[in-house]
Specification:
With about 120 residues, the chain is an alpha+beta fold. It has a single domain, classed as Ribosomal Protein L22, Chain A. The chain contains three helices and five strands. The strands form two sheets. The protein has a three-stranded antiparallel beta sheet, with helices on one face.
């Protein structure tokens, strides 16, 4: 008989973050499956520009993802989950709404700003 015990998960979302979908997919792919401590270390390294992913630092993306990761960790703590056994089971990004810049800014008028939805799910191993 297979043990179908329900796994405890903690999630956090950030909708309409002002970062590009392309860069957030690259960083999400990198942190997925890692322990929370290692994922935090990687994101902090990207922000401080000590680590790079293919020569790029993705600082804005790393800042937003670190914020979401910390929120997910706080949610896990509230659910009495073991912090040493937490890992990132899902780190995904979806296309957010498109935002056309207002007419008042003459230099960047009509330009579309990029937005993404971020989601991180933590699980115990």
């Amino acid at each position: 008989m297979i043990n179908m015990a329900k796994k405890k998960t903690a999630t956090a979302r950030f909708e309409n973050a002002r970062i590009s979908l392309k860069s957030s997919k690259i960083v999400c792919k990198e942190i997925k499956g890692k322990k929370v401590s290692r994922a935090k270390q990687l994101l902090e390294g990207l922000i401080s520009e000590k680590h790079s992913l293919d020569g790029k630092y993705y600082t804005n993306t790393a800042k937003k993802l670190l914020e979401v990761l910390k929120n997910a960790e706080a949610n896990a703590k509230a659910k009495n989950m073991n912090e040493e056994r937490l890992f990132v089971s899902l780190a995904k990004t979806d296309k957010g709404r498109t935002f056309v810049r207002p007419r008042s800014r003459s230099g960047r008028r009509g330009e579309q700003a990029k937005m993404s939805h971020l989601e991180i799910v933590l699980e115990e191993r």
